[in-house]
Amino acid sequence: MGLIGFCIHYAIALVILNREISPTVGMLYPRESETREVRSLDGLWNFVKSDPTNPTQGVRDKWFLDDLSRVQDTIPMPVPASYNDITTQNDLRDHVGTVWYDRKFFVPRSWANKQRVWLRFGSVHYEAFVYVNGEMAVRHEMGHLPFEAEITNLVKYGEENRITVMCDNALIQTTVPQGKITEVSRDDGVAIVQTYTFDFFNYAGIHRSVHLYTTPLTYIEEMEITTDLAKDNNVGFVYYKVKANGTAANEAVNNLYVRVQLRNKDGAIVANETSNSDLKGVLEVQKVLPWWPYLMHPDPGYLYQLEIFLHGENNELLDVYRQKVGIRTLSWNNTSFMINGRPVYFRGFGRHEDSDIRGKGLDLALMTRDFNLLKWIGANAYRTSHYPYSEESMQFADENGIMIIDECPSVDTENFKQELLDKHKSSMEQLIHRDRNHPSVVMWSIANEPRTNQLNAGSYFQYVANHTRELDPSRPVTAAIAVSSNDDKAAKFLDVISFNRYNGWYSNPGRLDMITKRVIDEATNWHKKHNKPVIMSEYGADTVEGLHLLPAYVWSEEYQTELFSRHFKAFDTLRKQPWFIGEFVWNFADFKTAQTVTRVGGNKKGVFTRNRQPKAVAHLLRKRYFALGREVDQCNFPEDLFTYIADVGPSRNAKHDDADL
């Protein structure tokens, strides 16, 4: 290829187009009702690890046509869970490529009667191929997001059935997130090695619950809920848009309508309406109880229950679905973010879905513990770094009044090509489709630490940001940016600027005297350049639990405490400007990473240990977050916030009170 040909080829490779993305349909969370049944397929499944050098063997040999135990030796594997840490074998922990699951299940004879049967996965990482009784049911690419398929015609009623799943964890330059796979020589041959730049372990497997559920032949397929407030937040509005599908929906659209009613926490009906055939409308709620974030109101996270009754010809009841609803408003401008008309100051965390043994598998006990710790420490928000969290955790956030910056799986994004853009936009579409009805979701994050200084980054993120707004204009768009404001090409397309910076750690490690001014200057530069609200979305320091060194020294609990304190000084200076709207610690808890010489058992930046016990800095942070809550939101202090020290007597003028915070 000559120079001219090379230049033309290179120029074509740089062109990316804003192509249409196929929309997600359905995917309502499985809930029982008068017309629906739900069965869990969670439990112990059979499991086979493929040969890393021959990952497609199971497809070629059609393992899905029979029990896995008949073609390979199987081991039991819990679902939901990551498979990596379940056994004692490092070749499974570090496996690259495909694995196989299967299990048997019965479908009741009663399910054969005028209804549909669905199979739904909360998440499989990264790519899943699902077979039912040897027939392909569904394929899905993208971890951390749900997918489903109707299997009415694939199952045998009143008989035993088999479900088989092939899961592929390989990450390449066109997956979201990205990675690279190489062949590296080893003592006895060649190893398939997965590498990635993001700093968390690439756990894989069936991570969230698997459900069978039924719907009527004509059923509620989707619902979209938006809310508003008026008259000093005394009147609420719930706007609903329902989509039906099935026989009656296709053949007799004009005869369908929905009857909608809204119940308060006591079960009393506070609003109701019957729609026209367009299946949409609005409910008006007098003396409404708005959804408020934690510590902004004595009763945070107030939820109503929306009941949708789908009716057909001759008023026949076809389907029933119930959805929790929080009534609130969001608004933002160049200098503030408001909920229900009140300015919000975010105080929270970046987190991970990560725990010992289970990895990224759904763990309801751990999730409950985490929310108790969030409330104990006085946080009002977190970012779902760096991927969508479980639907159950989103529901928990709704109920507890914890605000969510909802992030798609794009992390350390680079090499901005067309195929990657299409998948990136698809990940945002799937995320918004799943989470758009959650009142806790107050912002969309389209990436974490993308390489926004690279060529093509500007147009790439302009497309992603605009696509996100088209899907949901009711929430602002952000991204956690790690390049400098002078080099970045993406921030101008965002509504809120979030930036990550590790002063005193990756930048100038050990120098506590090089933190406060640098944080102030960088946040100020971001706002001056783009005239938008600014959040510091990551700061912190790795800390070994129980390591104490005086004077403060890196990795010690004293150093983490001092580093936080220097950031607090910067934040308090910045808070005098209305455009600085939040501070997020990295990280909530210690978590596992790939093996490197800079990570001793994983990333240790947690305020809590991996088993959710506080480090020394947690108590300092708790005092700060509640002090901010007292100042900004007029909340009360917990009784155990202060430890008794001494009564020095009033005559000495040395007694301190709450104001000293």
TrEMBL record:
The lineage of its organism: Eukaryota, Metazoa, Ecdysozoa, Arthropoda, Hexapoda. Residues 334-626 form the Glycoside hydrolase family 2 catalytic domain. GO terms for biological process: carbohydrate metabolic process; glucuronoside catabolic process. Residues 38-216 form the Glycosyl hydrolases family 2 sugar binding domain. Plays an important role in the degradation of dermatan and keratan sulfates. Its main location: other. Inhibited by L-aspartic acid. It catalyses: a beta-D-glucuronoside + H2O = D-glucuronate + an alcohol. The gene is 101887338. GO terms for cellular component: extracellular space; lysosome. Belongs to the glycosyl hydrolase 2 family. It comes from the Eukaryota. Signal peptide: none annotated. Homotetramer. PROSITE patterns: GLYCOSYL_HYDROL_F2_1, GLYCOSYL_HYDROL_F2_2. This is Beta-glucuronidase. It is found in: Lysosome. NCBIfam families: PRK10150.1. Keywords: Glycoprotein, Glycosidase, Hydrolase, Lysosome, Signal. Residues 218-328 form the Glycoside hydrolase family 2 immunoglobulin-like beta-sandwich domain. Pfam families: Glyco_hydro_2, Glyco_hydro_2_C, Glyco_hydro_2_N. Its EC number is 3.2.1.31. InterPro entries: Beta-gal/glucu_dom_sf (IPR036156), Galactose-bd-like_sf (IPR008979), GH (IPR017853), Glyco_hydro_2 (IPR006101), Glyco_hydro_2_AS (IPR023232), Glyco_hydro_2_cat (IPR006103), Glyco_hydro_2_CS (IPR023230), Glyco_hydro_2_N (IPR006104). GO terms for molecular function: beta-glucuronidase activity; carbohydrate binding.
